[in-house]
């Protein structure tokens, strides 16, 4: 056997024959068996692809038959509404045909909670001192609550007893100190850490002890003090368990903000203060107040002393008018802290506040609120360059116009105060910034109410728009002012009892009631002969809707002013129940109203805004957010680093959580955060948890904010419960009518709206039509393949013949050659026959009127049709109305015909029966699949694939034989050429010798 022959040879050099040509012709003869095998293999491949095409079609038909076995195909329902903008519905197959009339009285709405007030601090605060902590609440002292600190004992059932050492606490320690001390001891005890925790609930102003590990039970009791006895349980002990995992300090009331008392804060009511401002030293005190007096009352008392001190009022002459103060005490609701600040943020005069322990050793007002050493100095905040301020939008440089005067704005170099100073010096208005309202005010210098013009078409700076001056209001408040002088001094108004003021008052004061009515809402204030005028006016100032109430000593008149402005605002001050104070104060006898135009134009909104895209630490929040966790609806969120997370990022974190049940958004118009429940109804949003360690919710003004609780849907259905009202927490109602879900969209009229449910025949008809379409395509394809006439003059192509043809010529030849390859195929004959039997069959044990396809108007042809028309087995809908009527009136019976289940073949529905028959051919080990495999599946082990692999193996062996044969022929001819070359060489040598012997003759 020849294994390898070099092809680097040239034949016929010695013999003169075309050696390679002779070899090629011999090999062509030798290759005939290989070509025969290739033709056979390629023919098998054609047959396989044709059968796989049919197998796929059978599988598609099987799927269409399966669709007809589903109840939804025949029992689908459709709904119509008399007004789909108000009411819609969806119905499942289990819904019954009928009509339902709904009367919708109220839609369900979601619960919302928004930040209480603006979150941003003022653009600039000027010189001020701010209390170190929010007033009251967690800052309430234990002594103020009457609590004697002492250790606690925690006994874990089955786990021993643990002492909580609180020896560092004293009567001056706060509720926050108590919480921190308890948690420090718990965290230091491995047996308690993670099982119980103390916390302060800012919504209820309560200390809470919470069992974190509800698999445990533990008793908490006093051990030397009365913390538990005074705050939690008079028995001095309580138990935390899975049934009662939280206990709150219900026995004590902890007040916060303006309601916190001096006693709550541990402040001595006898305290005296020294306020040093601009070289002037002024003494202040809390005279007349007690431990039960509130911070609100302390602020009023201190500010009255400021009003009476020339060094602390504008012009140096006390008038009692709050607008004349140079410095004042305020409560900052956004931070919950007490502030002492210059009233004009442009005032650069600093000040200090010190406890006067020299004259009153127990003085501790300043030390308790502002500074541990009893002396606090003001810090200055004069704002930033305009380009860096937290305006609602970015201010552009350019020019603006006020009262016809053009003012320049340079955002890179100007501050707010330089622009306001430029306005004041260039126009007839005074421009000021009010830190309390965070607004700019333009006031006529002459006090007139002439409209102040803002803006011009030629303006190039947007300063007036950004600061809300364009769109701001110049309306005036309703002001009730004494119609005649009272003749009182400031000291008399502040300190003299009403019963001693006649004269100068026109008559003696009769105790009674002063009624103040603002926009129709009345508030009564009772007074007696021992009350002071300022004391009564302080109560008036605290009435909702009143901005100010004071005695103006310069005009010797009482002034009461509303906070709302405009001609629609009304105010009336009158005597009730025998009193005569309103009359003696010369109050107008009729209501006074506001005005459309006053002397002051004010920004339409607060100027400072939160930068939601900036990091929390640089976002402009008045209360800095701390790191830690916060909880909404029981879902905990982590703020790892306020310097690396933005409010927008926190909002996204909330909105991307599928479990929290709320959506968050920042409203730049009001500068606050809003949470909205994703589910409507009267469900509250649970804010915070005892385990929270971040102040995010309180800093964003959500803790304690009033929730606008959603409302439930209220509706009735005439056909349910006699039309009685139904209440649901959703606008999707699916529990009243089986298979029907109503969607409430709006309130209906008294007549209501009607939903009508009918059988959806279109679904069934579409399913039948698609089934018949695929069935006919399948049966036609099978019949065509079985009856095609084969052109036996055409042979399968060998591989070389296929390569020799152009692509389009090869495709055309193959298409002609494939015709008739499956003619008479036994498998196809079997499947066609069985398909025809199924479709022509009768279903037993169903309604006789609907036990065959012909009862639906479906058949291969009308009665009397020629055999040629029906022999293909193609099904037609000969009676459209008959089929549609059956689907409309008897959908269940049509469903039975197609989909009935039975243990016997004759009892099964036609679609189910056909599905089973086709499955015998198309399943993985089905008759046809075993023969040809599945299309697109490589390495199939079907019968035809095995035949093709066998032929391929034969071809490989034959090709190996041909290689060996060709190599042998080459060697033989090579040897022949070599022999002939030797003979020629020898012959030539002999001839040369002979020539030499004969002498060339």
Describe this structure as you would to a colleague.
It is a single chain. This protein is of the alpha+beta class and 1001 residues long. Helices cover 29% and strands 22% of the residues. It contains 24 helices and 42 strands. The strands form 13 sheets. The chain has a five-stranded antiparallel β-sheet with strand order 1-40-3-36-37, with no helix packed on it. The chain has a four-stranded antiparallel β-sheet with strand order 15-16-5-19. It is elongated, with a radius of gyration of 50 Å. It starts with 18 loop residues before the first helix and ends with a helix. Residues 1-6 have low confidence and may be disordered.
Summed up, what is this model?
The protein is of the alpha+beta class and 1001 residues long.
């Amino acid at each position: 056997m020849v294994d390898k022959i070099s092809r680097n040879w040239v034949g016929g050099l010695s013999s003169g024959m075309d050696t390679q040509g002779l070899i090629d012709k011999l090999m062509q003869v030798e290759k005939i068996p290989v070509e025969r095998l290739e033709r056979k293999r390629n023919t098998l491949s054609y047959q396989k692809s044709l059968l796989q095409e049919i197998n796929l079609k059978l599988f598609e038909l099987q799927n269409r038959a399966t669709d007809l076995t589903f109840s939804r195909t025949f029992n689908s329902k459709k709904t119509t509404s008399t007004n789909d903008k108000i009411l819609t519905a969806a119905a499942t197959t289990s819904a019954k045909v009928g009509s339902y009339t709904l009367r919708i009285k109220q839609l369900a709405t979601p619960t919302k909670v928004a930040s209480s007030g603006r979150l941003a601090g003022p653009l600039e605060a000027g010189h001020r001192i701010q209390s170190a902590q929010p007033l009251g609440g967690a800052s309430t002292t234990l002594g103020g609550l009457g609590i004697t600190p002492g250790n606690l004992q925690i006994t874990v059932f089955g786990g021993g007893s643990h002492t909580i050492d609180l020896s560092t606490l004293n009567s001056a320690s706060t509720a926050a100190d108590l919480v921190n001390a308890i948690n420090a001891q718990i965290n230091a005890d491995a047996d308690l850490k993670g099982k119980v925790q103390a916390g302060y609930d800012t919504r209820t102003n309560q200390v809470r002890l919470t069992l974190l590990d509800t698999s445990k039970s533990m008793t908490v009791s006093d051990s030397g003090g009365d913390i538990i006895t005074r705050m939690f349980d008079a028995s001095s002990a309580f138990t935390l368990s899975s049934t009662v995992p939280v206990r709150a300090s219900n026995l004590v009331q902890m007040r916060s903000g303006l309601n916190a008392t001096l006693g709550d804060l541990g402040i001595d009511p006898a305290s005296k203060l020294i306020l040093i401002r601009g070289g002037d030293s002024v003494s202040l005190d809390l005279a007349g107040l007690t431990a039960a007096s509130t911070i609100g009352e302390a602020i009023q008392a201190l500010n009255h002393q400021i009003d009476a001190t020339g060094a602390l009022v504008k012009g140096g002459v006390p008038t009692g008018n709050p607008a004349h103060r140079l410095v004042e005490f305020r409560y900052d609701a956004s931070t919950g802290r007490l502030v002492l600040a210059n009233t004009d943020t442009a005032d650069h005069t600093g000040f200090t506040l010190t406890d006067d322990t020299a004259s009153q050793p127990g003085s501790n007002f300043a030390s308790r609120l502002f500074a541990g050493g009893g002396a606090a100095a003001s810090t200055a905040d004069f704002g930033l360059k305009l380009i860096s301020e937290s305006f609602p939008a970015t201010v552009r440089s350019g020019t603006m116009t006020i009262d016809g005067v053009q003012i320049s704005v340079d955002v890179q170099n100007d501050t707010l105060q330089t622009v306001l100073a430029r306005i004041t010096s260039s126009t007839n208005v005074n421009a000021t910034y009010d830190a309390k309202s965070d607004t700019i005010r333009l006031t006529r210098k002459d006090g007139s109410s002439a409209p102040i013009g803002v803006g011009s078409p030629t303006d190039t700076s947007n300063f007036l728009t950004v600061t809300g001056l364009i769109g701001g209001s110049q309306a005036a408040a309703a002001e009730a002012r004494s119609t005649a002088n009272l003749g009182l001094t400031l000291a008399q108004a502040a300190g003299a009892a009403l019963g001693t003021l006649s004269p100068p008052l026109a008559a003696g004061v009769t105790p009674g009631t002063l009624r103040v009515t603002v926009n129709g809402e009345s508030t009564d204030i009772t007074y007696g002969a021992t009350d002071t005028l300022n004391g009564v006016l302080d109560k008036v100032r605290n009435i909702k809707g009143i901005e100010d109430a004071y005695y103006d000593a310069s005009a010797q008149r009482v002034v009461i002013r509303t906070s709302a402005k405009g001609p629609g605002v009304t105010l009336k001050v009158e005597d009730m129940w025998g009193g005569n104070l309103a009359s003696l104060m010369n109050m107008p006898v009729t209501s006074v109203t506001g005005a459309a135009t006053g002397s002051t134009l004010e920004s339409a909104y607060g100027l400072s805004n939160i930068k939601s895209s900036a990091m929390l630490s640089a976002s402009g929040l008045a209360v800095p957010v701390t790191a830690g966790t916060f909880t909404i609806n029981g879902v905990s969120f982590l703020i790892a680093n306020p310097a690396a997370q933005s409010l927008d990022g926190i909002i996204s974190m909330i909105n991307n959580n599928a479990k929290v049940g709320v959506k968050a958004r920042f409203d730049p118009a009001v500068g606050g955060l809003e949470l909205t429940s994703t589910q409507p109804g009267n469900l509250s949003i649970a804010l915070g948890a005892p385990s929270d360690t971040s102040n995010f919710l309180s800093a964003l003004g959500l803790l304690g904010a009033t929730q606008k609780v959603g409302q439930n849907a209220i509706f009735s259905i005439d056909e349910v419960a006699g039309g009685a009202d139904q209440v649901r927490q959703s606008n999707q109602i699916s529990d009243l009518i089986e298979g029907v879900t109503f969607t409430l969209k709006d309130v209906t009229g008294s007549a209501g709206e009607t939903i009508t449910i009918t059988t959806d025949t279109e679904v069934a008809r579409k399913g039948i039509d698609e089934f018949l379409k695929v069935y006919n395509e399948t049966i036609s394809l099978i019949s065509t393949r079985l009856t095609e006439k084969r052109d036996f003059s055409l042979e399968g192509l060998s591989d070389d013949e296929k390569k020799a043809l152009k692509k389009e010529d090869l495709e055309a030849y193959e298409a002609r050659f494939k015709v008739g390859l499956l003619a008479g195929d036994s498998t196809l004959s079997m499947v066609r026959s069985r398909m025809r039997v199924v479709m022509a069959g009768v279903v037993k044990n169903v309604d006789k009127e609907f036990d065959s396809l012909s009862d639906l108007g479906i058949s291969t042809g009308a009665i009397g049709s020629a055999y040629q028309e029906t022999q293909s087995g193609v099904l037609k809908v000969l009676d459209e109305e008959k089929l549609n009527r059956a689907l409309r009136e008897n959908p269940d019976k049509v469903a039975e015909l197609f989909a009935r289940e039975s243990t016997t073949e004759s009892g099964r529905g036609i679609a189910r029966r056909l599905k089973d028959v086709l499955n015998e051919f198309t399943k993985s080990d089905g008759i046809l699949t075993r023969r040809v495999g599945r299309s697109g599946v490589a390495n199939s082990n079907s019968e035809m694939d095995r035949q093709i692999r066998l032929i391929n193996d034969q071809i490989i062996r034959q090709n190996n034989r041909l290689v060996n044969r060709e190599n042998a022929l080459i060697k033989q001819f090579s040897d022949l050429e070599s022999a002939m070359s030797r003979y020629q060489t020898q012959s030539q040598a002999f001839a040369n010798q002979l020539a030499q012997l004969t002498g060339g003759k």
